[in-house]
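hey team, just a heads up i'm posting the complex here instead of the shared drive bc the drive is being weird again. everything in one block, sequence lines first with there labels, then the predicted structure for the whole assembly after. its two chains so it's a bit long, scroll down
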Amino acid sequence: ETGVTQTPRHLVMGMTNKKSLKCEQHLGHNAMYWYKQSAKKPLELMFVYSLEERVENNSVPSRFSPECPNSSHLFLHLHTLQPEDSALYLCASSQEIRGRTEAFFGQGTRLTVV
Amino acid sequence: AQSVAQPEDQVNVAEGNPLTVKCTYSVSGNPYLFWYVQYPNRGLQFLLKYITGDNLVKGSYGFEAEFNKSQTSFHLKKPSALVSDSALYFCAVRDRNGEDTGRRALTFGSGTRLQVQP
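-- predicted structure starts here --
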């Protein structure tokens, strides 16, 4: 257990559905991240939240909408997704101390868009 | 901008032999460097990191990595591989120039699959 929990572990959704991914960290960290992992590609950073403020958004399509209601919880709201959005979505957290600390990852949500 | 290259998609090694997984990086300043491992259907697990000091860093499960500034490399090594080491390995970098804000996320390579044969 890394202290970062993601739910659900697996999700199948149609292109017209709306769903949300949830991430919770029990480590007292002050930064949280969403990454997308597709086969044979580097992990793609999607969003960064530091002290509950979104500080980075890597040109992610608007059909992905993050929400960070507090420092322990992070959501990724999904709507009208495309089949190419099928991937493993990883949440991570870290305690930002001038960039020196490693990130801790959840087990991921395997998303399939049909 | 920061980037990481892992030139090998897959590394095959026999159990008991030494292993090396290669990583080179590019940052505008000095780097913080990390290695992670991913087992099937799992998230990434932290192995080790280089922040400052000794260029040889020791981490979990007997792994170590050597920071080489002149070659901009941070190769992962283990003296004797185990079948249970078979997994996907990711190298990651963060530019120290981002430390003032403390907000720069890690940039990852594309991963190297390590296969250890019995």
